[in-house]
Amino acid sequence: MSDLPMIRIGDGSSNENYRTCAVCGRDCEPEIFEGGEGVGIRVAFSCPEHGLHGVTDPFEGMR
Q1: What is residue 20's DSSP assignment?
Q2: Which letter does DSSP use for residue 11 in this model?
């Protein structure tokens, strides 16, 4: 058995609506950006047609 960490895709809830455009249902493109001092990074999900859909902090539960 390997000691490599498990790579999880999604938020662990098996619900990936956070990355689906509410208007057209298209898969949104992830865009990583710095959230500012003391905040860390964030991932924004943007629909190519309708713009920003949502923002998430992938390390929120680890702080």
Answers
A1: B
A2: S
Tokens 């498990």 belong to 6
Domain annotation covers residue 53: yes
DSSP 8-state symbol, 4: P
The domain in which residue 43 lies consists of 29-62
Q: Which residues pair with 45 in a beta bridge?
A: 30, 54
- The answer to whether residue 42 is domain-embedded is yes
pLDDT digits (tens, 9 = 90+) for 41-58: 888 889 989 998 888 887
Number of folded domains that form the chain: 1
Q: How far is CA 29 from CA 12, 38, 42, 50, in A?
A: 19, 25, 13, 11
Quote the pTM value. Answer: 0.59
State how far the alpha carbon of 60 is from the alpha carbons of 40, 41, 49, in Å. Answer: 9, 10, 28
